Amino acid sequence: MSYNKVVPALVKSSSDNIKRICLSHGRFRSTVASTQRDEVEGGKEKQVDECTVVKAVQADLIIQSKNTTDAQTQKIEIDFGNTHEAYKSKDNIELLRSLLVFKLCTFDFLVDKNKELMDLSKKVFGQRLFERLMKMTFYGQFVAGEDHNSIKPLIHKNQAFGVGSVLDYSVEEDLTQEEAEKKEMDACVSEAEKESQVPAPEFFVTQEHDHSVDHREKKYKAHRQFGDRRGGVVSARTYFYADEAKCDNQMETFLNCIKASGGASVDGFSAIKMTALGRPQFLLQFSEVLVKWRRFFNLLAAQQGKSGMDALEQKLELEQLKESLTQLGVGNKDDIENWFTGEKLGPSGTIDLLDWNSLINDRTSISNLLVIPNVETGQLEPLLRKFTVEEEKQMKRMLQRVDVLAKHAVENGVRLMVDAEQTYFQPAISRLTLEMQRIFNREKPIIFNTYQCYLKEAYDNVSVDMELSRREGWYFGAKLVRGAYMYQERSRAEEIGYEDPINPDYEATNRMYHKCLEFVLEEINHNRKANVMVASHNEDTVKFTLEKMNQMGLSPTENKVYFGQLLGMCDQISFPLGQAGFPVYKYVPYGPVNEVIPYLSRRALENRGFMKGSQRERSLLWKELKRRLLNGQILYKPVY
Asked: What is the mean pLDDT of residues 29-57?
């Protein structure tokens, strides 16, 4: 694909009226499978975020039949308490290391001061001894090695036991909070905003028809107190914009990961993060425009008595909609009539959200996409009063980088997952991902979007995108996570003053995750044109998925449902799944010891909550260690 395929989908030339737009080896057999149904055992979940995935070689089913149909309908039950199967890839030293690290993660003082303690250890022991100490503990537990060559033994071992590897070069900038805040404000505030001293008005309201006013909402503007986007975040890596050259370097890192994935396996995965590929100002602004157009649709739906319904249940009567738009002065009667004469627009006499999304005005310049409807004047008005030439180029360069990565993924036979980020960036990220799906997912799922199920709108997002894939005939690809930004999102919403986008509690998030997952599984069952990555450490969620797959007759050999967990965590889930033939992946970070300290610091913070919430993994580790000692396996070594 060339850049010319992506950008025109966003920026076809047109008049000033609203028109349609198409934004637009060997492997072990396992005895872990059981015909007995397990008791449900819970555990706190953690998200698998940004990562590049190397797909494991497909395993045979544990229970097989000479008849293909029987093989596909054969139920598989996995015993996640079978420690022999779960830890057969680990020697005793690795088990002891896991027990030590997980125990240390339960001490608040050690976790809260982990960065300071690591810095002190480096000064006391010296660099060489410090690195050896780290490799014996936290680094050895959560990081695979320092470079592509040093991580190969771990990747090959995991593959032999049925588990693929998620590669991520986990080097991060070690910025102070002040440095991070300055970078974020410089990257997210436009020249127009820097010059303007006029406060942003409320949604769709202005004092008068004045194009000098910047129509911005607080949620979609940068705020210095939340400029350090690392705060309150675990699992997710954070990128801060410096300049275009740095974005090019980060694109090269993603390209190298795609090459590694393609060279290591067939149909591998790779993941990217949009904020690494350009100035986040565009993501903020485009997100605000998309949200305001959707609100406008909701306003029109309310006028027809259709508020409070699921997104795709809201179907506006076409004639009544035309009348409302005319009364609002959005356009004259003839113009409005012409907007709804598209080939796929309104054939049933109604307009739903997908039809409405196709009406967003397309213009020759990307910045001209950033217009919003003003209900009072009936005019389309610019979100900002001006864009500099350089800002326009920065927007286009972000799209060019996404285009290069997508093209490279196709050439290397790798599927590309786009990671989710904060809610004030996410609408734009999802829309850009959707456009890639419409281009590349025609014959098979290449592009995967990530859905954060701690969001109140998660099901609407999944169902709307799924419906679009049905209508247009392309393959739907999704990674489901619970989310990595909850504390930050809630704090920001409360302090700045907008509705909390997060579900009220953990149980509500679990229900949302299972609702979205079941919806995608049903789509897979009906037409096999959808794929899903179940990225969760929650054992109940994994069992829920297996139960639904059994009920629907979905075979793991179809490679439609994938599982993902972090390296060094929840091996009792990952390895039994892999040895039973399910596509499962470990997120495998790598990088020099000194340069992955920020990542290790987050792992310590994350494991505190995880290990305090559940004793299951430590008890299983102790159980396996005792079993080996009682059986005389003091020098146990994995065989593969």
From this structure: 40
Q: What order do you get walking across the sheet with 447-452 strand by strand?
A: 52-54, 164-169, 584-590, 561-566, 530-535, 476-481, 447-452, 414-418, 268-272
Contact 312, 352 (CB under 8 A): yes
CB of 474 within 8 A of CB of 437? yes
d(CA 285, CA 295): 15
**Which residues are CB-contacts of 629 (< 8 A; sequence separation ≥ 6)?**
none
Query: Would the pLDDT of 375 be above 70?
Result: no
Residue 430, SS3 per DSSP: helix
Dist. CA 417–CA 479, nearest whole Å: 8
190-195 contacts at long range (C-beta below 8 A, 24 or more positions apart): 190/281, 190/285, 190/384, 190/387, 190/391, 191/386, 191/387, 191/388, 191/391, 192/384, 192/385, 192/386, 192/387, 193/221, 193/384
Locate the DSSP E strands across 441-524.
447-452, 476-481
Q: Provide the pLDDT confidence category of residue 440 given band limits of 50, 70 and 90.
A: very high
Lowest-pLDDT choice from 132-136, 297-301, 401-405, 532-536: 297-301
Instruction: Give the model's confidence band at 386: pLDDT under 50 very low, under 70 low, under 90 confident, else very high.
Output: low
Q: Which two tokens mark 143?
A: 């990081």
Both tokens of 484, joined, read 């990595």
Q: What is the pTM of this model?
A: 0.81
Q: Which amino acid is at 497?
A: G
Provide the terminal-to-terminal Cα distance of the chain, rounded to the nearest Å: 41
DSSP 8-class letter at 625:
H
φ, ψ (nearest 5 deg) of residue 625: -65, -45
User: In this structure, are residues 524 and 548 in contact, taking their beta carbons and an 8 Å threshold?
Assistant: no
**How far apart are alpha carbons 73 and 553 in whole angstroms?**
5
d(CA 270, CA 477) in angstroms, rounded, equals 13
**Predicted confidence band at 198 (pLDDT cuts at 50, 70, 90)?**
very low
28 or 95, which is more confident: 95
